[in-house]
Amino acid sequence: MPAVSKGDGMRGLAVFISDIRNCKSKEAEVKRINKELANIRSKFKGDKALDGYSKKKYVCKLLFIFLLGHDIDFGHMEAVNLLSSNKYTEKQIGYLFISVLVNSNSELIRLINNAIKNDLASRNATFMNLALHCIANVGSREMAEAFASDIPRILVAGDTMDSVKQSAALCLLRLNRTSPDLVPMGEWTARVVHLLNDQHLGVVTAATSLITTLAQKSPDDFKTSVSLAVARLSRIVTSASIDLQDYTYYFVAAPWLSVKLLRLLQCYPPPEDASLRSRLSECLETILNKAQEPPKSKKVQHSNAKNAVLFEAIALIIHHDSEPNLLVRACNQLGQFLQHRETNLRYLALESMCTLASSEFSHEAVKTHIETVISALKTERDVSVRQRAVDLLYAMCDRSNSKQIVAEMLSYLETADYSIREEIVLKVAILAEKYAVDYTWYVDTILNLIRIAGDYVSEEVWYRVIQIVINRDDVQGYAAKTVFEALQAPACHENLVKVGGYILGEFGNLIAGDPRSSPLVQFNLLHSKFHLCSVPTRALLLSAYIKFINLFPEVKGTIQDVLRSDSQLRNADVELQQRAVEYLRLSCIASTDILATVLEEMPPFPERESSILAKLKKKKGSSKLPDMDDSRKNVNGSAEHAEDAEVASKTPQFLLEELISTDRPHPSSSATMLPTRTMVPSHTFTDNLSVNSAPSSGASLLVDVFSDFSSAAPTESSDEHFPRFVCKNNGVIYENQLLQIGLKSEYRQNLGRMYVFYGNKTSTQFQSFSTSVSSNDVLCSHILCSAPQLPAE
């Protein structure tokens, strides 16, 4: 770039800037600026033509005024005129003004594009650089349309100077980011890869940035860049700092280029060629070895550059996940950073180790640092570092250390920052479920969660503990005893009341033999919390009361008195009022056998993926959640799905969508433990169907809906189901391992209506599912049949 001669200084500009700086008040500054704007406007409109120097000076003043925060509405044309000058300083000011003040919708864009085309065709390296910088700075769609085909030709032309190649590569990168659909992929793509072999490291650095972005969009077009990137990286890593003097930064050879090359290699899997893979492994080992060497300088810039290359190399090792030796070495190196005095290094080390924990080769090595991570969780001042420590504990958890990690997380939860409490609650709930061998420990853990951070325990968490207790007979008595004892505390969180009401309503009979937890004591304990709860919780407690009438006839009178009270029968909330009325009526007119049938114990929930994991993935993003040990069993005793080869091959995003789309069965606070007959009439039929079972997604509407009638073992035959329709209007007509078909009918005098419902019992969505209704000729004239197509859910 040409040097600016002494005569090119603009004295008028210097005086104006000095005047502005010497202003004592904002009013004085505005007054001086308005005076200067009036002078510039008169000069531009005057009869006397201005020379290039004057135009440059006045345009510079306008640019300075704009940077002070004042609007500029003239001078654009004079700046465009400067582009046609042959003097560098005048052309530079013109391009600078346009880059800052001209927007993409300006009427001058066509004139500007013409001037840029002239400079690109001039073959003057200085002018070409100015034009390319302007295109990159503006980056508008109009400029992309005008120059997207010209810039690649300049980039790969053999006679283009190195400085212009750098600018062209970065300009093309900018256009690809702003308007990727306008950047053509042609024969130049194969030639741009060879810029990695260029002797000028500045060109290589710019080209690497471009190739990395393009490879992410079209990896197959840039496969050949892998071997060239490895070769270039090898030359940099093995070279002495004096060999790359112009690109050595505080004794670190070409750190920026090294980082970019390592990022480019992360766009591809490990090289298939054995020699190339060996050469890359040698490069990575050399980088790890250099990290162990004593620092060559005490300057922070030296350590920053050195660590930047090291962390990018570790990221590549983790990406390839194929060299056990390198993975363990990387883990050990990161372990040294966990106690480093620099906060940023501790943060990056924890973040990288989270990813390492998901590798089978390095998981055990990561676990050796558990005490250091727990110490960081307790003593670290920076909340972001503590959050990464929580993430790492979650990632390194397995059966051998699950109780220790869950205990530490619960301990930290009491003092944790409010912004991360909900996430910690979700993680503790997931770990307690995944690694629970003794489910009494799981129940204790969830109740502790509610006690410590009840406000952050989402519905998914307490839904899940109820599902598990209902599905496991061996823990029901313990759960009932534990929640009974927890409810005796003077102050209980509302979520604990919900869990206690549900579990005691179902399994309170298991502890009723103890005088300390007799039916009346249980009822009085629950009812003492009633007036302190919200409407949904009160509705759940009323459902528990009607369950008590079935379980404990001796408290029937006491509960009926509560239901008869004005606070219930005349409650302002229609849901509570209607429940009280219907439950009272049901308890008065129904026989013991009918009550036993209507209020029977909840059936086991169908086995589904835990909704807590789906919630955590949605909150954090699937890419940030490390995989955990999948060798365990889930709560219902079946093998974890991640061990299945088909599921393991799915992408994280696919798994996330699948988990979120699969609704989980959960107890509904507004329809808890009630059959269809006792529900609010205003509810839709599908709402009523979900009452006596676990609500599920639309595709699985009838899973366990008619559990009263279906046999324990699914059957392929439907003939045995027909007799039940002699006395009942609804039930299951057909059921197997995949599908459940339910029938509901209504009759009024000589009119009848029949509904058929199809339930998907699998965890995957049916494809191209359709139904049809057929009847013989005699019935066609008497029966109206329709089968509306419902959207798959």
How would you characterize the overall build of this protein?
It comes from Poecilia formosa (Amazon molly). It holds the Pfam family Alpha_adaptinC2. The protein is mainly alpha-helical and 793 residues long. Strand 4 and strand 5 (751-760) form a beta hairpin. Helix 23 packs antiparallel against helix 24 and helix 27 runs parallel beside helix 29. The protein starts with 10 loop residues before the first helix and ends in a 13-residue tail after the last helix. 38% of the residues are buried. Mean pLDDT is 81; it is low at 1-7 and 626-717.
| Low-confidence region ranges | 1-7, 626-717
> How many beta-strand elements?
5
Largest sheet: 3 strands, antiparallel
State which percent range the strand residues make up.
Answer: under 5%
Mean pLDDT: 81
Structural class: mainly alpha
> Which word captures the global form?
elongated
Q: Approximately how much helix is present in the residues?
A: 55-70%
Spatial arrangement of strands, main beta sheet: 3-4-5
By DSSP (H or I, 4+ residues per run), the number of helices equals 38
Family: Belongs to the adaptor complexes large subunit family.
Subcellular location: Cytoplasmic vesicle membrane; Golgi apparatus; Membrane, Coated pit
Membrane topology: Peripheral membrane protein
Region (Disordered): 617-647
What keywords describe this structure?
single chain, 5 strands, three-stranded antiparallel β-sheet, two-stranded antiparallel sheet, disordered N terminus, 4% strand, Clathrin/coatomer_adapt-like_N, 793 residues, 57% helix, mainly alpha, 38 helices
